[in-house]
Amino acid sequence: MFSKILIANRGEIAVRVIKTCRRMGIKTVVVYSDADANSMAVEMADESVYIGGSPAAQSYLVQDKIIAAVRQTGAEAIHPGFGFLSENPVFAKRLEAEKIGWIGPNAFAIDAMGDKISSKKLAAEAGVSTVPGHMGLIEDTKEALKISREIGYPVMIKASAGGGGKGIRVAYNDKETEEGFPAVKAEAKAAFGDDRVFIEKFILEPRHIEIQVLGDKHGNCIYLNERECSIQRRNQKVIEEAPSPLLDPETRKKMGEQAVALAKAVKYDSAGTVEFVASGKDKGFYFLEMNTRLQVEHPVTEMITGVDLVEQMLRVAYSEKLKIKQSDVKINGWAVESRVYAEDPYRNFLPSIGRLKRFHPPAEGKLGEGEVRMDSGVREGDEISMFYDPMIAKLITWGKDRDTALDVHGEALDRFHIEGIQDNIPFIAAVMDEKRFRSGNITTAYIKDEFPEGFQGVAPTKMQETQLVCAAAYVHTFCDRRAGRISGRVAPAGAPRQDWVVILGDTHHNVTIDISEHGEAQIAVDTGKPHSLVTNWQPGNHLVEGVLDGKPFAVKFADRTEGYLFRHRGVALRALVCTPFVAGLHERLPEKPKADTSKLIISPMPGLVVSMDVALGQDVQEGEAVCIVEAMKMQNIIRAGAKGTVKAINVKAGDSVAADEIMVEFA
Ligand code: ADP
Ligand code: ADP
Ligand code: MG
User: Fold this and answer.
1) Is residue 457 included in any domain, yes or no?
2) What is the pTM of this model?
3) How far, in Å, CA of 308 to CA of 302, rounded?
4) What Cα–Cα distance (Å) separates residue 654 from each residue in 212, 600, 627, 664?
5) Active-site residue, selected from the candidate residues 210, 226, 289, 661
6) Residue 347's CB: how many other CB atoms inside 10 A?
7) Final residue belonging to a domain, choices 312, 332, 352
8) For the segment 101-150, what is each residue's pLDDT rounded down to a tens digit?
9) Pocket lining: 83 vs ligand 1, CB cutoff 6 Å
């Protein structure tokens, strides 16, 4: 086996690869940019090499620097992770010429699959069912219209070089093709430097189901079942699971065998994924593309098959023969992964950047009836920067069946605690409990269908409110008493305080609490009969676990300076605890008037201005695009909140902007 490898990546996937290497006794080298100088991957690797500035184009994408790092450290091979150079056939070829090992598929396979249109042709030749449509490139809008009509609406217009959900449009009629075709061409040119476009049928009730394949250099290839990744936002995956609730064993076998046929057609010799779109209507399935690398969501496959895919990649890269036979591959239980993104679900999923003031992921290992696995590459105190993609961690849970895996996922999310930046945990938690998601009747339009107005949070039940009020009062009383006992402090006069006002939103609750010695309390809320609370909560713990009136609960809280912030499943509530006197003052305090921002266009996050689409003096309608700001590889179109005339433009394309910076002013 290799004795030392270099990981040409960062973040959670670099950490993930290091974990397997440590287990196998392989030394690791990571490369890092300025932004990653103190990263967890750098800390965990045996060696690290600095390769340049924070933008990927100055570091992780510079082939010469990575090869120099290999030479400098004597690493025998490179694991590319995903993204960056992982699907670059030129790089793979170059390593071959320079006699450096490549922990990925051969360059020919990467090249053949790198392009959606040529891979589709190859797939069709290998007997794989492909999406009905035109198998060639399309030159102009006139031809696009003719082909769209031949295929029959709705159709999907796609960039052949597309990836990451970019360069894709659905058209339901001629007008949408007329608009969509040039738009996709332009987007493809800008994002991939390649404006080749094709058109295929849009599959109704589409579900994204993909097959994990694994091949070696001796002609063996197997499939490790499927993953369903239908929960997507803007064609980007958010929640993935394995197996798929849609597939029966026959369909699974058919899909798996077709995926293997395609892999064999390109002598595939690593871990890879064949993506299909399946129709919820008739269970038909069609080839989409092949990703010639390890996939973000590979852990769900590992959880149900027990196979460590990184280990297998290392072994086959070292020319070992695959030891796993198709008949060895089983499905054990159910696994679910969610991608924890640095974004604000309450503000239309705007990217969020900053320092992780707190980062407490749930503990790995057994939880309830299942298992928790955390793949993350950050620690408390780390910075989430604008330079890379917004994924900060992946939570994976396993259970004996789907319901158990989802229940455990919700439980684990309740234990996940992040402060300092916004995260999408409340949103994922809401999905975990949502009826349609639970039923398994999902499509790629699920988020659009179920959250058409975006995410507003989940309304708490009466019982949850009571749990939050009681837990806040308990913690507050506990700390109040403890403060009184710390030597050197002036003890509060008289008996410890027992009556508080807990403010939840606009509602004031009068609370009387009586704590006994052993973490038991009687808590009266308003005029109701007292609740009994039992907990072993201790100061310093961000999680209050206990039993209220015989029912177990767990709530996390944070940020005591601004009150108690409770998050439970999709519910997020802030509670203020104060004395009745202070509560009275609160009610009398005038609300601070908000600044009028209706005439300003403010950058919602730090980023780079990609384009300024208005000019001085221009009349702009409500909803019209004003400019585009890019952060974390996402382009955000900033739109006018109301109609107005442009009075001042403070930034231009290429400028960096800070959060809340005023970019455009209206008269
Ligand atoms: P998957 O199907 O595995 O989810 P994605 O297309 O979402 O694949 O990409 C996988 C990862 O690689 C993501 O973290 C994404 O941000 C990153 N990525 C995708 N394309 C690129 C690229 N061209 N350069 C760098 N990173 C990329
Ligand atoms: P990317 O390279 O960005 O991952 P894909 O071709 O894999 O692009 O498509 C991204 C997503 O778009 C898929 O996961 C699927 O949900 C949806 N999609 C792609 N092609 C079709 C189609 N023909 N019909 C319906 N949905 C599709
Ligand atoms: Mg894809």
Assistant:
1) no
2) 0.86
3) 6
4) 40, 20, 12, 15
5) 289
6) 13
7) 332
8) 999 999 999 999 998 999 999 999 999 999 998 888 899 999 999 999 99
9) yes
